[in-house]
Amino acid sequence: MPDLLAGYSPDAAAYDELLDSHGQVRAHWRPVLNQLRRSQPAQLQQRQAMVTRQIQANGVTYNVYADPEGTDRPWELDLLPALIPADEWQTIAAGVAQRAALLDKVLADLYGPQQLLADGLLPPELVFGHESFLWPCQGMQPTGSTYLHLYAVDLARSADGSWRVTADRTQAPSGAGFALENRQIISRAFPELYRDLGVQHLAAFFRTLQDTLTSQAPAAGETPLVVVLTAGRFNESYFEHLYLARQLGYPLVEGSDLTVRDATLYLKTLAGLQRVHAVLRRLDDDFCDPLELRSDSTLGVPGLLEVVRQGRVLMANALGCGLLEAPGLSGFLPAISEKLLGEPLLLKGIDSAWCGEPSVLDEVLQDLPHWLIRGCSQAQPFAAVQGASLDHQQQADLARCLRQQPEAYVAQAPAQLSQAPVWLGGELQAQSIGIRVFAVAGSDGYRVMPGGLTRVARQADTDVLSMQRGGVSKDTWVLGERQVPGEQWQGTRALGAADLVRSDPYLPSRVVENLFWFGRYSERCEDNARLLRIMLGRYVDDDDDPQALDAMLKLAHGLGTLPGENHGSLDARLREALLGAEWPASLRVNLQRLQWTAGSVRGKLSQANWQALVELQRDMQRLEGGEDDLGQLLDVLNGLMISLAALSGFALDDMTRDDGWRFLMIGRCIERLQFLCDSIGGFLRTGTSDDASALDWLLELGNSSITYRTRYMASAQLIPVLDLLLLDERNPHAVVYQLRLLQRALKRLAEHFELADISALAKLERQLSAVDLHSLESPLFGASGIRAVFDGLAELLDAIRQATGMVSEQLSLRFFAHVAASQGTRSS
């Protein structure tokens, strides 16, 4: 194959991970390069495509606000790993573990005796002036005496080959889950290479995290319940929150899932309140408790800080850890290390100087172009600026700001980044990289993950490492002897017959509510899509039965699906019903609601189920892209119907029959019943009951056309159509079938929970079953008599629709809102 290094042109001023100063391939990279050279470019492209497919199949995303690709942007992973030799890694790991231990001691002092301030090793302005110093946490002793359970540090390699710390991540450090997912994907892309190089496994890191949370949780003899607290699905690393919760075996919860009673933290589950003993939080400090920290937070738990204060829950990391991320702190750590640890820092930070000291300010002002000037606090609206990028006047303005308020600024030397090979465009290219390394507190000190998350700059000529700005990631391979036998760590506790569980004991009420509405929106989208397909098909085909088309349009308008004539021509109204962003019943709006609820219950959906939802989103994008051609819209709508039908199949065959599934199916059942009742009742009132074309579209709307033709092999006629859609107890699209299904589901629910009386449904079912269709063929009644039968049937269907709406409200009050019925209801 062509020379892989032909297009590889690293920056001569930067350290290159692949080539040494003489342009020779470094020893630890030779086996990888030899493997690549044995492959054809097409084979490498196939491997990269496999990586991309695996990311899509696993649903790995990194949410980016206001991103044109949508909030769920696919994670980007380069085919080639970053390589670190074992001896070099030992130095890095020792430095990271030392730094984590030091920062833990710093926190203990700052929220305790504050001796560092008294000794002049830290300026009070830098601590007390920072918004992340939480005064309510002063004097608090964390459970287990550990402040920093999980730590991450961003490292960059200078031109001389030494590693420097560019940032400490202590508040709710992200990336460990992404590192694990990267490992699982890339190790499958190069299985032989992964094995032959002896890449160190990540299992021990996550096992230590589990052990620490379990051992330090104040369980008092109970089995500890550990939860992962997330800010929700719009957080940029929500996938990682969900992924870690799954891998660690912990419930993923939001603040609204938790409540404080008598200084004890509880999880609100379908079965009642369950005490929480430990929280692995992925929520910033000040958002955690609106009572004592940030009053405008809707993400936290009121009273949580008091539970922590009384030692009733383990908080990992301890509240207040965000202070350590203050950029001005780094420059004081070398002296603090000598004081607290009695040894120098093994990993140096980039040169950093707090401008609050007069001598430091003078030094910075004398060589302003050399420094990157940053604000000490996020509360200060000051964007980091490189002195060298400013003209003379701008430098003078910046110097004036520094003199006016020097304690508010910190000067840092620009970080130097090394370069590593990236597989891009069918060749190797040199891109800037940095590595985020993770450490977890254990019983014998901090354990460092052998590897980490390598981030790659998006363009070759930039040193910005940001996943928010479109960066790419790499798996990080530490080469050498493996310390553990395998990658798996789950299930280390021996399980016996007494440990068997048949349902999720920690199913949050919020998740159940979203499953209920996921079921409703799934069915609603399917029903509306079918109705729109029927209308659009007859409109495009220029149906020769205008009376039937008019009746169908009136029905769609009565159902709220089709906008009224004040919205313009029929063409415009159909487009609005399909794609209208402002029309509340449009298919587009309902699909967005479906995606919203799906994102909230992603942890309960299988990988295949989630892929069906991703495909559904693509269908909707194709639908929006074909809005200029009604025929193309109809074709895409047919594909969308298949994706919606797949959701039904996954619900029936791919989910465990637990309480969450039961509520999902109840939601589908209620929605289908209401749609059938509204549709058939509206049809009976249109006056087109003797029109075969109208009966045809009613059968199609009830998804029963094939069943009718198979049974009768005749054109659509009133009595058998009504029998099939109203009274056939074997047709899942018949009213009586769904009515009985709903009653059975509610009775099973009542076996475990107290429910309101549902006898009204049984009474209505008996009335419906007693309907005698023979009356429609008796000449004694005449037209007026038949009209009276239709009106009676329509009123009965209205009553069934209202009764199912009451069931929806009762379920919402009983299981989701947890309030008395007199306090309000949710719209059904």
Automatic annotation (TrEMBL):
Any matching Pfam family: CP_ATPgrasp_2
Start and end residues of each DUF403 domain:
507-816
The superkingdom of the source organism is Bacteria
Residues forming the Circularly permuted ATP-grasp type domain are: 81-457
Question: Matching InterPro entries, A to Z?
Answer: ATP-dep_Glu-Cys_Ligase-2, CP_ATPgrasp_2, DUF403
Protein name per UniProt? Uncharacterized conserved protein, circularly permuted ATPgrasp superfamily
Q: Which organism is it from?
A: Phytopseudomonas punonensis
